[in-house]
Amino acid sequence: MKPTLVTGATGFVGWHVARKLLERGERVRVLVRDPGRLKELDGVEPIQGDLRDPESLARAVEGCAVVYHVAADYRLWARDPKEMYRSNVEGTRHVLDAARRSGVERVVYTSTVGCVGIPNEGIGDEGTPVGIEDMNGPYKRSKFLAEKVALEFAEGGFPVVIVNPTAPVGDHDFKPTPTGKILVDFVRGAMPAFLDTGLNVVDVRDVAAGHIAACDRGRVGERYILGAENLTLESIFGTLAKAVGRPAPRIRIPYAVAYAAGVVSTAWAGITGKEPIAPLDGVKMARKKMWVRQDKAERELGYRPGPAAGALERAVEWFRTNGYC
Predict the structure, then answer these.
(1) pTM for the complete prediction?
(2) Domain covering 4-171+202-227+292-305 in this structure, CATH number
(3) Exactly one of 68, 139, 303, 324 is catalytic; which is it?
(4) 324 noted as active-site residue
């Protein structure tokens, strides 16, 4: 059996993709910068490497039939934004070039819902018009450009399928992700107020299953949104309040106030080098409800996401058990 390579297995979504593949009985190889960071993935074959190191990628993909390129530099603030472009854009090009040279039969590239067009006061899908001018901050811009690289390879005849996860939640959110940090802050009691915004929330296990469905049934060069439920931040906090027995915040912050806080917090981070409490790019993203529909994935991939409430509760329990709260 030829191995399947997963990049980003020390991260949230990548870990779940690798776990799902192991459960299917596949031979799983993972690209990691530090093998010591691999947790609870017994049976995988670690290859030490970096998205910015083409030689290490050539070693990682050698002999593989399938590659799941999940790894990304996912931050809402970085002192040197060029780092995101090196990992997300050039790193994606390096992975796909190495896979093509090695004769890989299929690549699933993990993009983000941030690259999907969202109409004002509406719900977006894979066909909603969008351009780089709609991308706030280096993370979204770098992922948008990386998705263009994946499409470029697909248009050139290389079998690449793209998935666009929304806001995954659940267990094993090690870092945690920006969404996971919202949950941790809520459980800690460090979320006294909220913005009038919204997310499409999805169980990370469903996202992992969607990756595999995209590999099995996805059309080359197509994008598939992997989401579940469109929820306001207020309703998310309501679900969390029931799970932890803590009252949900009742104070709604005006956007102008949040923006001002983001400006000050981000400017101070530029001086200190410490991550801002309220990254300005995150505030800008929150101005629009990131609501989408996943009809295409359901229709073409057989994708069937479950309700988000169970995943939110599982995430809270995992964070508590592992000392985050």
Answers:
(1) 0.94
(2) 3.40.50.720
(3) 139
(4) no
